[in-house]
């Protein structure tokens, strides 16, 4: 049976940034109904060619969305449940699926259950949700040590061995799927034992068999994680790094190596592929030579997997992530109410639309494999095949025109001169051939 996500192309949004929400929640402040501003961008996503919306955190949190304090309410800096329902309805009316960001490795240190556990001591019913360590013989009121996410005191790790945590996550996932969501991105899935997801997901899938579940995994054994956890896919950070790094270093051997490893992943699952997201420097800023931005997009939209475009990348926005407090702000900016109010690069937008359109005309690319035809430091020609179909992609990073034996007869995107099966691609040029 074919599922919707086999042919999905995501437009990825960080809502708190896009709507210009305050950096810190004021519980006494009135609800700000900002989610309707995102509705004003849905037609842009459709015109881009996207078929699904990947939403960053929308649940009540203290600051950046990943320090949740209530999984069952919409962050009042964004709006309320009625605003969420209207957003989902508007997306569905346009044929866009909606996938939510689930932060289930940890909660914010201001989460009411955590505060009650601290006050109630080791025998409090909610203490078992967390990994708390009280000093032996501690006096009443003594605060315990607690496990955190990567050393951040404001992010309190849940105890994934506790049945109550599994019950909570199952409840949250099903609650919002019943509200109209179509799937989940599992934040920091790599920090959670795969066996936890294997316990949680069967109950979720029993009620919502078509829900798409993708885990955020950065390093390690991607296929092993998928097999052990039961998720549909993981984020393909290895290919992300190889794309921009190989272009910057003019070392396409690195990209060819990564594509070989990518082929192996496709034997068991289709990874979520991307060249930008809310956690990394934007691709327009990452590349040392902006002439090679089309090359990055050509790879993203011709190789197997489920592509995701981070909102603003399609407009050529720049932004550098920095390792400091507030270091994500540049890659999570506020957007105006409407796309025509945001000055972007029309050529980059045209390029995205062209390549996404090509992708949608060739849905077999979802599980296609690549094979190199020609390879040098500054030239890579690879063929993409599946189900008897074939495309050829040529990437030229050199200062001179390149000629390859492409055995193709049509230029589908980019620029190339074809003659007798050979393709000549201009300096710093690229082409997709059929």
Description:
- By secondary structure, this protein is α/β, with parallel strands linked by helices.
- It is 30% helix and 23% strand.
- It has 13 helices and 23 strands.
- Helix 7 packs across helix 8 and helix 9 packs antiparallel against helix 10.
Brief write-up:
With 434 residues, the protein is α/β, with parallel strands linked by helices. The chain is built from 13 helices and 23 strands.
Molecular shape: globular
Structural class, from secondary structure content? alpha/beta
The percentage helix is 25-40%
Q: What is the first-to-last residue Cα distance?
A: 28 Å
- What number is the mean pLDDT? 96
Number of contiguous helices: 13
For the biggest sheet, the summary is: 8 strands, parallel
- Cα radius of gyration in angstroms: 23 Å
Runs in which pLDDT lies below 50 for 5 or more consecutive residues are none
**Biggest sheet strand line-up:** 13-12-11-5-2-1-15-14
Beta-strand portion reads 15-25%
List the helices and strands and how they pair.
Layout: E1 10-13, H1 15-18, H2 35-39, H3 42-48, E2 52-55, E3 59-61, E4 68-74, H4 81-93, E5 97-102, E6 106-108, H5 112-120, E7 132-133, E8 145-146, E9 148-149, E10 152-157, H6 163-178, E11 183-186, H7 194-207, E12 212-215, H8 222-229, E13 233-234, H9 237-249, H10 252-266, E14 272-274, H11 283-286, H12 293-300, E15 306-310, H13 346-361, E16 369-376, E17 379-386, E18 389-396, E19 402-405, E20 411-414, E21 417-419, E22 422-425, E23 430-433
Parallel strand pairs: 1-2, 1-15, 2-5, 5-11, 11-12, 12-13, 14-15
Antiparallel strand pairs: 3-4, 6-10, 7-8, 9-10, 16-17, 17-18, 18-23, 19-22, 20-23, 21-22
Helix pairs in contact: 6-7, 7-8, 9-10, 12-13
